[in-house]
Every structure is written in structure tokens, then in C-alpha cells.
Amino acid sequence: MDARTHFLAGLRLILRTPSLLAWVYFTTLVVALPLTLAMKHLLQGSFEGSLVEDNLRRGFDLSWYEEFAANSSGLGTTFGPRVVGILPVLSNLERLLDGKLHQVDPAVVGAGILMVLAWSLLLGGILSRFAHEEGPHSRSGFLAQGGLFFWRFLRLSVISGLIYWGIIRGVGQPLHGWIESATRDTTVERTVLIYTLLAYALVGMLFLITLLVLDYARISLVVEERRSVLLALVRALGFVKDHHRAVLGLYLLLAAAALLWFLAYTWLAPGPNQSTWTAVLLAFSLGQAYLVGRWILKLWFLASQTRLFVSSKPRTPPAEVTEDSPWEDGPTPAY
């Protein structure tokens, strides 16, 4: 199995199914809209009708932000320069590796749980579309497949959360605790940095293995129409072990595409100091383009992995017609 073949096959499949991208993008907007409106009212209430409003029209007002941050609680604490440009991606990555994804405002956690539920509902239809590329497709069929696999994906999400918690509690936190003790009297920052990077690398490798197994477990549930989530995990673990070269090669190609997109946005992403409508609209458009690009990459991952999984399954040869077969030349009899 050539990883490059499935890498390109996944891209072609994504380009032929723009409706899937529309579904996931629209779902993201619906989940994010309540938080957006709530943040809008918080910000308006902090400066509306004051001189600060005029200052903000000319650019970012650091004095206003320092006062806003000092008096903020709840959702307001999530606002700041760190939500602009590429900083949110780096902040989320740091929280993931440190095991602090849950240490955000409850409203954000609630939106994350809602997105997990919505994704679990869409994923069955998405994977079914990728698995049966040439079959008939319809909106009703897409939603039916989503409903059919919803609870299975939800159970798998719970298991993935437990695995994530186990890696953080069993590996990540003990490692960081050991590093803190071992470097307590160290005066060279480079030593602490190296130890921390090695700990992040180990935790990241465990996350990568877990992510690969979970991805192929989801694919196994749909392609093989499995009911048992645990058996799907066992099947996925065996698939990753038996085809580790193709699985890892495909993942590295996809990760390289994701890294290029990340670097492009890092170069293009604007800062917080936008003072004209043109600059604001440009910043908003770039942010939405990055969001769409991330969903394209997510679907690209799933499409390529699904095609790799399907290609590994043995094909059932068609039944041979023999001379003694009653169906060779005559019409099929009606019963």
C-alpha cells in the first residue's frame, strides 16, 4: 500500500465532496455563535459611550485592556491579545500537552462538549461517504448514517477522554513533577528547556499513537459496520501494527501538509492593532480561511485514512460461471 496514493486519493475525494466541508463549517459557526454574542455584549458594556470607544476605533487600547482584564471573570477572561493570530493554536497545544484543556471557562468547556456531540452526529455520514465513494448518496442517507453511529462514536469519545486523562495523570504529570524536582537547583535555563521538550515529545508520541488507533477504530466502526466499540479498538490496533509503514507514512504526509498550512497562516496572520474596516475585514477573512483550512485538513486525514483502510480489505472475487451453471445463457428465472 503506497501512502502517497492514498494521500492524493484523499485530497481528490475532499475536492469532490464540498458539501461535507459546508456541513462541518456551518456546525462550527452554530456552536460558536452564542459565545460570540456573549463576548460582544461583555466588550460593549466595558467601553460603549466612553472615550475608550473612540480610542479603540484608532487601534488597540492597552490601558483599557489592562483594566478590562483586571475586572473580568468567567467568559471575559478568555479575551486578550492571545486570541489573535496564531497564538490560540499554540495556547491550545500547550494546554493539551500540560493536561489543562479543562481549565478554561465553563462556557467554553460546554461549547467544546456540544461540538463533540455535533461531530459524533456528522462523523457517521462523513466516513460512510468516504468508504463508499462510488455509491449513491443523499442528504437523508447522510443523516441516517450519522444517527446510526452516533452513540458508538459517543462511547468512543468517552474512551478517548479516559485515555487522554490516563496519559496526563500517569505520564505527563509525573514527568513534569520529576523535572521540577531534578532542576530545582539548576541555574541553566537550557537544561530545564531540554528536559521539558523531551517530556512533551514523549507525551506527544503517546497522543499520536492513541490518535491513530482511535481514528482507525472510528473507520472500522463504519466500514465494517461494527457494534462493539472495544472490538473496533482491537481491530484498529491490529491494523496499525500490521500496516505501520503505510499508516505512519500517510500520517507524516498529512502532517507535513498541516504544518505548511500552519506556517502560511503564521506568516499571514495579522496582529490585534487593526483600526480600519478594511483591515478588520481582512483579519476576519484570514481567520475564517484558516478555520476552513483546518477542517479541510481534518477531512483530508479521514478521507485518506479511510481509503487506506478500505484498500487493505481483501476483495471478494466474483462467482465464476461454469458450463453447468443454469444462468449461463438463459434468462434469470422468476420465483
What structural keywords apply?
single chain; globular; disordered C terminus; mainly alpha; 335 residues
Polypeptide structure, described:
This protein is mainly α and 335 residues long. The chain has one domain. Helices cover 76% and strands 0% of the residues. The protein has helices spanning 3-16, 18-47, 51-58, 62-71, 87-98, 106-131, 139-182, 189-223, 229-242, 244-268, 277-312. The model is unreliable at 318-335 (pLDDT under 50).
Helix count equals: 11
| Molecular shape | globular
Helix content: over 70%
Supply the helix-strand structural class.
Answer: mainly alpha
| Whole-number mean pLDDT | 83
Write down how many β-strands occur, each being a DSSP E stretch of 2 or more residues.
0
Order of helices and strands: HHHHHHHHHHH
Largest sheet: none
Task: Kindly give the count of domains.
Answer: 1
Distance between the termini: 44 Å
- Strand share of the residues? under 5%
Spans with pLDDT under 50 lasting ≥5 residues? 318-335
The Cα radius of gyration reads 25 Å
Summarize the structure.
This protein is mainly α and 335 residues long. It has helices spanning 3-16, 18-47, 51-58, 62-71, 87-98, 106-131, 139-182, 189-223, 229-242, 244-268, 277-312.
What secondary-structure arrangement, pairings included, does this model have?
Elements: H1 3-16, H2 18-47, H3 51-58, H4 62-71, H5 87-98, H6 106-131, H7 139-182, H8 189-223, H9 229-242, H10 244-268, H11 277-312
Helix pairs in contact: 1-10, 1-11, 2-6, 2-11, 6-7, 6-8, 6-11, 7-8, 8-9, 8-11, 10-11
